[in-house]
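User: Hey, my collaborator sent me this sequence without any context and asked if I could get a structure. I don't really work with proteins. Can you help?
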Amino acid sequence: MNFLSLEEMYQKWQELLVIGKTIERESYNDYILGMTLADEAKLYILEAYRETELSKYRRRGVRNQRSILKEPQEICSRYLHCCSVQLGGESLHIQGGTASPMKYGLQDYGTIQLFLDLMTAGWKIPRWLKKEDWENLQLVTLDVAGVKKLPEYEPNMPVTLQYEPKRIPHFLEKTLTLTVGKSRSFHFLDHQGDEVQCYINDVSLVDVWEDVENQLRDPKYTQGISP
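Assistant: No problem. I've predicted the 3D structure and written it out in structure-token form, which is a compact way to encode the shape of the chain:
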């Protein structure tokens, strides 16, 4: 650890908004923390996290790409399908996000800084959350599109999350011949018998080892690594 690494970890927000709203569910609670604005706006949600039996099962035995594709899809967060947030009278468009179990981020200085900055801005941790083990929580970060200034918010304002229709994946098992540097279109029949047209815009090869070598030659990357 050095001060260069510390400087790179430090995040300075242009604006920070505390929401602090508990979402009560049958057997657990989720929690809308608030928003930050730097290069882009983000909305943060803490949700209950439990490692599923499906996750444990996937670590056993030999797995290849084909077997992985056939495995049931695990929902890592219910909030990643959120498409918009209604905050009072203002609607915010969500354009993506990430979810990270906090048991893997106990040494994540960025997450700790976020919590400390929220507390500095007036966040009061609810009683039910104070003694909740971080291993039972997951931090969801949603990217909010087109926001130049964070909205106004009062504690009595309603917060409404809207979701996209649930997508159901289907294993196609269709053999294709692709040519590097060229596009390709093809069609198939879905499970209802309707024709679906697909397009592949480009095919390229990636040398992962060359990418790693280029990264290791970058002084900005190697400066913080011990020999």
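In plain terms: Residues 147 and 206 are 35 Å apart (CA to CA). You can pass these tokens on to your collaborator as they are.
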